[in-house]
């Protein structure tokens, strides 16, 4: 019975890949038309970001799944890494793009460096936002503490903007810059009672205030991040030990999808959805190239070792 289910699953998988191969040009064309249509509207940025956000991991998954390795075991491992990456990415992005109601918020500045957030949760995602919309190029560093009783966690980071001014004039002009006006990270502050926020540094002339929000931790916490890391490592291993040279690239798609999702989760901003999306695309390209180079080097080393043996 189990073997029958595996065969049925394999047939569905192969038919899905075949459908993707036959219709990818049509799907790609429809996506481009949709993005251009959304780009004509200033209010379409959020939907545009969602289309790219949810669409890129799916595209990467089907592209990675086309890798064929010698033997059934190799193909099964490819399917496992692809499905694990797709599930992890879409879960992370769903929690990011459909943001839950905040647990609380406060505003910090040099004039008022302290704030209180009333929440009983111990684990949560802390979001730091600085308004960079009035500058075409900006760079600001910040640092503040979140404390509760004897527990203290230091949050520090950098907010940047390198935006193409022509974007303000026409949504059809390619965006050559990116905006990281938001940073998120999952932290734990043990104890009971409200969380105290204390600003210790805010340098740069781009922003004068920081908005700090506490959001509910995603279901599973850091499990999804570890799942993506494990999938990328397994993909590298599969491509390294594969005897088929054409399989190189499977790990690159997995790395690109994971890097895009994690980076967008950290920097997505409802105030400028496409700014962080474009930055995450750049980050994904870099991760894909790094994975390809690493896989190529490991493949060569392992191939030389096999020949020597």
Overview of this structure, please?
- With 309 residues, the protein is α+β, with helices and mostly antiparallel strands.
- It has helices spanning 2-39, 45-65, 71-97, 223-241, 250-267, 273-308, and strands spanning 104-109, 114-117, 123-129, 137-148, 151-162, 178-180, 182-188, 195-203, 209-216.
- Helix 2 packs antiparallel against helix 3 (71-97) and helix 2 (45-65) packs antiparallel against helix 5.
- The longest helix has 38 residues, at 2-39.
Quickly describe the structure.
The chain is an alpha+beta fold. It contains 6 helices and 9 strands, in the order αααβββββββββααα.
| Alpha-carbon distance between the two ends | 41 Å
Profile the largest sheet. 5 strands, antiparallel
Mean pLDDT: 77
Low-confidence stretches: 165-176
Can you count the helices? 6
What fraction of residues sit in β-strands? 15-25%
Order of helices and strands: HHHEEEEEEEEEHHH
Assign an overall shape: elongated
| Helix percentage range | 40-55%
Task: Write out the strand line-up for the largest beta sheet, numbering strands in chain order.
Answer: 2-8-4-5-6
Report the count of strand segments.
9
Class from helix and strand fractions: alpha+beta
Radius of gyration: 22 Å
Oligomer: single chain
């Amino acid at each position: 019975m189990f073997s029958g289910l595996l065969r049925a699953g394999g047939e569905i998988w192969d038919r899905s890949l075949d459908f993707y191969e036959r219709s990818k040009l049509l799907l790609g064309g429809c996506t481009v038309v949709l993005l251009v249509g959304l780009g004509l509207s200033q209010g379409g940025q959020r939907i545009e970001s969602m289309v790219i956000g949810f669409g890129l991991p799916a595209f990467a998954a089907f592209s990675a799944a086309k890798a064929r390795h010698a033997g059934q075991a190799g193909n099964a491992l490819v399917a496992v890494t692809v499905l694990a990456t797709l599930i992890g990415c879409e879960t992370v992005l769903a929690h990011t793009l459909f943001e839950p109601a905040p647990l609380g918020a406060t505003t910090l500045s040099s004039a008022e460096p302290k704030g209180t957030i009333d929440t009983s949760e111990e684990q949560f995602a802390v979001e730091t936002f600085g308004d960079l919309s009035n500058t075409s190029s900006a760079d600001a560093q910040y640092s503040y503490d979140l404390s509760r009783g004897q527990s203290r966690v230091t949050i520090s980071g950098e907010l940047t903007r390198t935006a193409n001014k022509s974007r303000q004039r026409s949504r059809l002009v390619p965006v050559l810059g990116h905006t990281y006006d938001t940073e998120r990270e999952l932290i734990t502050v043990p104890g009971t009672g409200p969380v105290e926020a204390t600003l210790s540094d805010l340098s740069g002339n781009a922003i004068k205030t920081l908005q700090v929000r506490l959001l509910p931790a995603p279901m599973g916490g850091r499990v999804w991040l570890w799942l993506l890391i494990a999938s990328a490592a397994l993909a590298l291993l599969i491509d390294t030990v594969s005897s088929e040279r054409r399989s190189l690239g499977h790990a690159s798609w997995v790395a690109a999808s994971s890097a895009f999702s994690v980076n967008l989760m950290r920097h997505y901003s409802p105030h400028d959805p496409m700014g962080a999306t474009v930055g995450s695309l750049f980050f994904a390209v870099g991760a894909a190239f790094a994975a390809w180079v690493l896989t190529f080097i490991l493949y060569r080393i392992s191939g030389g070792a096999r020949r020597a043996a």
